[in-house]
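=== Structure Prediction Worksheet ===
Name of assembly: unnamed complex
Input type: mixed (protein and possibly other molecules)
Chain count: two
Listed entries:
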Amino acid sequence: MDRAEILSRVTDIMRDVFEEDDLVVTEETASDDVAEWDSTNHVRMMVAVEGEFGLTFETNEITAPTNVGELVDLIEAKLAS
Amino acid sequence: MIDLAAFPHLQTVVAQVLSVWPEHESYIEARFEGDGHDFLQRADEFAALAVTNMGSDIRRYCEDYRWMCEEFLNEDVFFVRHGRYRLQTFAEAYEQVYSNADYMARYVHGILISQIIWRPHALAFDLFRTEFLPGIPEGGNYLEVGPGHGLFLYFASQRPLGKMEAWDVSQSSIAETRSALNHLGVVREITIVEQDVLVAPERSNEFDAAVISEVLEHLERPDAALRSLYSALKPGGRIFINAPINSPAPDHIYLWRDPEEFTSFVEGQGFEIESKHFLPVTGHSLERALRRKLSVSCIVIGRKPE
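=== Predicted Assembly ===
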């Protein structure tokens, strides 16, 4: 799975969790850029990512990503391991 | 950053929290957004008491608050993954939380700061002060279960009440409450006893007011706790109940999933509902919180029928 596809699927998850159908997501999109991206929604986004990609994150991995690029990096690394 | 210059004690606590947790700023911004002057004034009075209690240890309290929030985040991950609280029994909570004195001390510190920083906690306390306390008749008898940081007791003690009594299952928690009341200069008699509300000897028609805030979700049989308090109240006596739904925490075991389920539970123990308030987690509307199964504090003021 390439980064573009991961980003596309992550975008769908973010639009659902943050309830913003028109949310524009790039690898540079950070939590500070999205009003709804708080700690509560972050957990829900990460658990949705687990379900979407068939992964399980460690606790430190759940809290680590602060932007979408870091999240895509993490998903790539988990899929490769 | 929000300007709290007119509320110096809130400002002190917020500054300390941000000094140990700068990344918490956007949350704090959201928490104070739209708060009115009168509410902030009362919140500042609460913060003044907390600052007095914490004294020179305020930084440690704020560090413990950050630690507690991280513990809560771990519980939230479990809750979202599995749709239930991690712990199911009081015995598990006792083993993992209540019997660990160091953990409990940090937890209690974190909770005190959360009363100031978390909007539902601050609003719940405000409802206690503005809606519940003024309705207690002069000379009325007051009972509280789980007095914890002691600030509900403190504000109650400032009113012309009759007998005041509090029950707690933990000696260390009782010591914390007594210490807080001493720090705050409370001199009137308040009986604080080691007593489990679930096995309390029956008390009947004795109290005009009962308070049980953030206790029921820690119990396997919250129904038995409310029935005990129902018995202890006089006919017409009022009860202040505060319990969260969908609110994972290291020692929460009883899960209610929506406000109607909770109010039906209260009515099921015999109480008439005088008023109810549902306070969503900071940054979310009630509708969204319910749709997404986020934490909502349920404040119910009930009455034992005449």
